[in-house]
Write a structure and sequence with these properties.
The protein has 153 residues and is mostly helical. Helix content is 65%, strand content 7%.
Length: 153
């Protein structure tokens, strides 16, 4: 049952946010059986193609606090999906890489999530699917740009 909205709060931004939250919640509940939570998928996905990275670099890349990323990294290392290697530039630091097992699990987790989305939009016209993809990519880029501007001061 939808939550009650106050007058004046029915903006497109609010409707979009609620839709995104609903999509995220439904994806999370339907993809939980595939062995990797959404946060871990994001860590592995952001590391892939950029490895090896320090935790601090990965956190910056993901626009998250290093302690948050570090907790996920510790779990992924413990489960054998990431490995730590020495940092040639700083002996005190380490760099992260996906293991073969991490690559395989990420591929499996992404495929499962893609299948959920593909099934949901299977009856949509191709133009609608392309438009949604383009608009969400544009929103993601604008949010990234907005965040970068805030950080720059």
């Amino acid at each position: 049952m939808p939550a009650h909205s106050s007058p004046g709060e029915n903006t497109s931004g609010r409707r979009l946010l609620l839709a995104l939250l609903t999509v995220g919640r439904r994806l999370k509940s339907r993809s939980a059986a595939h062995g990797l939570d959404s946060a871990s998928v994001l860590v592995l996905h952001n590391l892939r193609g950029n490895e090896p990275l320090r935790v601090s670099e990965l956190a910056r890349y993901m626009a998250l606090d290093a302690s948050t990323v570090s907790r996920h990294v510790m779990q992924l290392v413990r489960r054998g999906y990431l490995t730590r290697t020495g940092d040639p530039d700083d002996r005190r630091a380490c760099r992260l890489r996906l293991t073969d097992r991490g690559h395989a699990l990420l591929d499996e987790a992404m495929a499962a999530r893609v299948a959920i989305v593909n099934d949901a939009i299977a009856d949509w016209p191709e133009q609608d699917r392309d438009t949604l993809t383009a608009l969400l990519a544009r929103l993601a880029a604008d949010l990234h740009r907005q965040e970068a501007n805030l950080e720059a001061g």
